[in-house]
Amino acid sequence: MNTREQILSKNYEAMCLHGFQGLRTDKVINELGITKGAFYHYFSGKKELGYAIVDEIIAPHYIGTFAPLKNSKNGSIEAITSVLEYLKGCSSRETIHIGCPLNNLVQEMSPLDDTFRDKLRGIFEAQKDLLVIALSRGVENGELKEGIMVEDVAFYIISGIEGSYALGKAFQSKKVFDRSIDQLIGYVRLLKKD
Predict the structure, then answer these.
(1) Which of 75, 126, 127, 191 sits CB 3.0–4.6 Å from 63 for a disulfide?
(2) Where in the numbering of this chain does the HTH tetR-type domain appear (predicted)?
(3) Closest CA to 190 of 144, 154, 151
(4) CA geometry: angle at 174 spanning 169 and 176, to 5°?
(5) pLDDT interval class at 1 (50, 70, 90)
């Protein structure tokens, strides 16, 4: 890992724990044993670092999780529930404790910074678009009920995921998160044509 990647990675970890506004880049620089000059060689300031974290760490991860929906050979319901099961499986008590980094950053920075808001909204739009592809394919091939509003359903699924993370964090409970995701999986299965 090169110096720039180390700076991004360590600051991302700190941001997950303390939020963007609570992020102390000077402490992270000290922990890494690099100079401020090395930091400023790569980033003009904290905001630019935050934007890079969104672009290079958060967006690829959160969009990548949904990417299999684009070309899945499985049915739409199976493809979507596989993503939801994956989210359950990769979440731990520790990750639920700090919450969803995307959700946390949306709540913290969207009202304060247009660039953050645009970048974070772009992640949700990409997730929505991938869900719409899978749902539309399901409607077209007769797997899903006719007349479902695929974009609305996609937004509902995303809100269910993010709500599950918020509830898990509020209750400090992986079990609450898992139960919420299980209900979302049940909803997706109800979309199947009889």
Answers:
(1) 126
(2) 1-61
(3) 144
(4) 80
(5) confident
pLDDT of residue 50: 97
Closest C-alpha to 169, from 100, 89, 91, 81: 100
User: Strand, helix or coil at 110?
Assistant: coil
- pTM of the full structure: 0.93
For 142-180, letters b (16+ CB in 10 Å) and e give: ebbeeeeebeebbbebbebbbebbbebbeeebbebbbeb
Q: Is 151 helix (H, G, I), strand (E, B) or coil?
A: helix
The first and second tokens of residue 109, run together, are: 């920075």
Per-residue confidence (pLDDT) for residue 15, from 0 to 100:
95
32 contacts 13 by C-beta, under 8 angstroms: no
Q: Tokens 């695929």 belong to which residue?
A: 150
DSSP string for residues in 19-52:
TTTT--HHHHHHHHT--HHHHHHH-SSHHHHHHH
Mark residue 144 as left, alpha or beta (left: phi above 0; alpha: psi -120 to 50; beta: remaining): beta
CA distances 134 to 44, 69, 73, 90, 167, Å, are 40, 6, 10, 22, 27
How many CB atoms are closer than 10 A to CB 192?
13
pLDDT band at 173 (very low <50, low <70, confident <90, very high): very high
Query: Mind listing the domains of the chain with CATH numbers?
Result: 46-189 (1.10.357.10)
